[in-house]
Design brief:
By secondary structure, this protein is of the alpha/beta class. The protein folds into 2 domains: 162 residues, Rossmann fold, CATH 3.40.50.1970; 209 residues, Dehydroquinate synthase-like, alpha domain (Up-down Bundle), CATH 1.20.1090. It is built from 14 helices and 8 strands. The mean pLDDT is 92.
């Protein structure tokens, strides 16, 4: 028996933030960052809470790559405030931090009382970027700054109860962030589409998200006033999140996690650099041109109007389409172009491949992979 989870209530569109007025909240623990404060986005939330005389506490010590230290600090403040609701306002790092605070809070309570007696706080996610899909997933990715490793954790209790996708919060996203997060969406959707737990249900969301990326990402990147494109990318991010939280991801993310932690490059940008090389590996073009995964890549090409007369042609055209999109978004073609030091990179190859092999996402990659194959992908992604 298999399961498809659609737990989150999703509210979207302009001014959907007003939905907060109707939610029963006694005390709100707000997780955000300083950018949201400076842009005035936090004030949109606190105004509504103040009008309803809801007590709230602010935690804004969130880094670009959320760390375990930050989560533990937030956990301490959350326990002290005794809130019934967590509101996470921001990008994927903020939402992942809010989810992780909830996760470790529940683990702490389990040490003290019976799990069945625990009343889980509500979690409301308000994404301000369009990339991670964290507002609907069971995943949170944290960074262990001591070991320079990203740690993906997964627990269905971290799936937000409510997601509010108000496109007014995407108006101020700079173009380079749109590019990076847009490729995060595309990688989520493509990996979910071919993951070992993919199904008819996840395929529907993944395929739609892929189409939206190719239709709206360039528009959002080149025209900051195109709110329709930004809204569609926000929806695409959410749909890709629904897909991969049910199907899993793959080795693209496993490798991206360690590179991001080691070299400090935005996650979506690394995903974009790696994606053509991972598609090439998973399609088994050098071995079997008619594999199940290559057929699924071919279907993506067909749905996008790319050449697809054979699985091989479908895979090749998909790879070329990804490369062209990257070029138009000014995303580096290789890890070398992303200014990763070659000496440190090649010294770290074996260690990085070992860490990627242990990553949670590797388990759902459609093709079983070995250390030396990850090293080959890394080498190709470095030089092109």
């Amino acid at each position: 028996m298999r399961n498809f989870n659609l737990k989150t209530d999703i509210y979207y569109g302009l001014d959907s933030i007003q939905r907060l007025k109707d939610i029963n909240i006694k005390k709100a623990f707000i997780v955000t960052d300083n950018v949201m404060i400076k842009l005035g986005n936090l004030a949109e939330i606190t105004y509504i809470l103040d009008k309803k005389s809801i007590d709230w506490c602010l935690f804004n010590d969130v880094a670009e790559n959320p760390s375990l230290e930050s989560v533990y600090k937030g956990l301490e403040e959350f326990i002290g405030f005794r809130s019934d609701t967590i509101i996470a306002l921001g990008g994927g790092s903020v939402i992942d931090t809010g989810k992780a605070i909830l996760y470790y809070y529940l683990l702490t309570l389990e040490k003290l009382i019976d799990r069945d007696l625990i009343k889980k706080p509500s979690l409301i996610a308000i994404p301000t970027t369009s990339g991670t899909g964290s507002e609907v997933t069971s995943y949170s990715v944290l960074t262990d700054t001591k070991t320079e490793r990203k740690i993906p954790i997964m627990d269905n209790r971290m799936i937000p109860d409510i997601a509010i996708l108000d496109n007014q919060f995407t108006k101020t996203i700079p173009s380079h962030v749109i590019a990076d997060t847009g490729f995060d969406v595309l990688t989520h959707a493509i990996e979910a589409y071919v993951a070992i737990n993919a199904s008819d249900y996840t395929d529907t969301y993944a395929e739609k998200a892929i189409k939206y990326v190719f239709s709206y990402l360039l528009r959002a990147y080149y025209n900051e006033k195109d709110l329709e494109a930004r809204e569609k990318m926000q929806i695409a991010s959410c749909m890709a999140g629904i897909a991969f939280t049910n199907s899993g991801l793959g080795v693209n993310h496993s490798i991206a996690h360690i590179i991001g932690a080691r070299f400090g490059i935005p996650h979506g940008r690394i995903n974009g650099i790696l994606l053509p090389y991972v598609v090439e590996f998973n399609s088994e073009l050098d071995r079997v041109s008619n594999s199940k995964t290559s057929k699924k890549y071919r279907h993506i090409s067909k749905s996008l109007g790319f050449p697809h007369s054979t699985p091989r042609k479908g895979v090749v055209s998909l790879i070329e389409g990804i490369k062209i999109l990257k070029d138009k978004l000014n995303i580096p073609a290789t890890l070398k172009e992303a200014n990763i030091d070659s000496v440190i990179f090649y010294k770290s190859l074996e260690e990085m491949s070992n860490i990627a092999m242990e990553d949670l996402c590797t388990k759902s990659n459609p093709i079983k992979i070995k250390n030396e194959q990850i090293i080959n992908i890394l080498k190709k992604a470095y030089t092109g």
